[in-house]
Amino acid sequence: MTSNLFQPIKVGKMTLPNRVIMAPMTRGRSGADGVPTATVAEYYGQRASAGLIITEATAINARGDGWPGAPGIYNDKQQAGWSLVADAVHKNNGRIFMQIWHMGRSVLSENIDGMAPLAPSAVAAEGQIPNSQGVPTDFDVPKEMTSEEISQTVSDFVDAAQRAVDAGIDGVEIHAANNFLIDAFLRDGTNKRTDAYGGSIENRTRFLLEVVDAVAEKIGSDRVGVRFSPTNGVFGIADSNPGALFSYAASQLSSRNLAYLHLLEPLGEGEHPMKTDVPSVSHLIREAYKGVLIQNGGQTPESASALIESGQAEAVAFGVPFIANPDLVSRYQSGAELAAPNPDTFYTPGPEGYTDYAPL
Ligand SMILES: Cc1cc2nc3c(=O)[nH]c(=O)nc-3n(C[C@H](O)[C@H](O)[C@H](O)COP(=O)(O)O)c2cc1C
């Protein structure tokens, strides 16, 4: 029985018609200027039957913008591109939040005019990222942010959120996962600061809460979600005590009347690319967070339904299944077979492997 997936739920001021959420997925179709095109609008419009679409990560400023073809939301052209997307989704009766990010230490300096990437501390990310020619490239050692740079970044998050709302987007998800700037402040493998933003759990959570509070004050807390990936190790990120860190952060967010908290933590027994040996902490976060909790990572309709039934989540996000199945909700509802996506076209430019997956 998966019927609880198709029950409505209130998220902020919206009522979602179902609890099948589209997880944020970078698809690299916005070109060098980060402006979403008509094809991007078509892609999201095709997926409007999701309870809520969470867009791909979208840069809040140029210094934090470094994934080839990823969109931005820090100038008028980008904002106009996002209006096309919002219109396409709303025309099809959908709802859409924009995931907003600063890539922090994961930006290549060649993509930001040779400047050093910004981070809480000078700890380089592990692994590689495609450069502007798509060639995998080692990360640079980032620059430790000054308090002025921290304040400026908080203000850039606020401006980006306001632009998203002005473009007609329903709200924003603050990306505090996957080693990007906010996550790098949270976890002690990357945060070695000795000022008010480093050291204790309270201090490492300070930057997140400053961003959340400033954005909520500007656009309303009911339009703000947050995403954590408490135990993954993307680009070498780690924390010595993720249970204590993320239950504290979740308890702080719990009192702020946000739209939702979103966790990327593959919970099942099976293999998942985002899984590590670190034991899951989602149950601790659930105890600390009283609002709408969205769980994500390798879920099936059956496992998702069981999470909702047990109270571990109010809704569940699906990533890869949405790539090849624009009508995922009705396929889950009818038990229809799923189309398989082609990983070779996850990030490549153009409509192939993007807007050419047909509904049933
Ligand atoms: C192509 C691709 C792009 C992704 N981009 C993002 C992103 O921009 N922001 C983010 O928070 N997670 C991103 N993720 C992670 C997904 O949101 C999701 O957490 C992950 O795919 C696990 O969910 P799933 O097992 O249902 O696919 C991406 C995943 C994929 C496959």
Distance between the termini: 22 Å
Shape from CA axes?
Answer: globular
Which CATH class is shown? Alpha Beta
- CATH homologous superfamily annotation: Aldolase class I
Count of individual helical segments: 10
Strand ordering within the main sheet: 3-4-6-11-12-13-14-15
Q: Biggest sheet, open or closed, and with what strands and sense? A: 8 strands, parallel, barrel
CATH topology: TIM Barrel
Provide a brief overview of the structure:
Pfam families: Oxidored_FMN. The chain has helices at 38-46, 76-91, 147-166, 181-186, 201-219, 242-254, 282-288, 301-310, 320-324, 328-334, and strands spanning 9-11, 14-16, 20-22, 52-54, 58-59, 96-101, 118-119, 128-130, 136-138, 143-144, 171-175, 224-228, 260-264, 293-296, 315-318.
Question: Which tags fit this structure?
Answer:
N-ethylmaleimide reductase, binds flavin mononucleotide, TIM Barrel, oxidoreductase activity, acting on the CH-CH group of donors, NAD or NADP as acceptor, FMN binding, 31% helix, Oye-like, 360 residues, alpha/beta, Aldolase_TIM, two-stranded antiparallel sheet
Q: Can you walk through the features of this model?
A:
With 360 residues, this protein is α/β, with parallel strands linked by helices. It has a single domain (3-345), classed as Aldolase class I (TIM Barrel). Helix content is 31%, strand content 15%. It has helices at 38-46, 76-91, 147-166, 181-186, 201-219, 242-254, 282-288, 301-310, 320-324, 328-334; strands at residues 9-11, 14-16, 20-22, 52-54, 58-59, 96-101, 118-119, 128-130, 136-138, 143-144, 171-175, 224-228, 260-264, 293-296, 315-318. The strands form four sheets. An eight-stranded parallel β-barrel has the order 3-4-6-11-12-13-14-15, surrounded by five helices. A two-stranded antiparallel sheet has the order 1-2. Helix 3 runs parallel beside helix 5, helix 5 runs parallel beside helix 6 and helix 6 (242-254) packs parallel to helix 7 (282-288). The longest helix has 20 residues, at 147-166. It binds flavin mononucleotide.
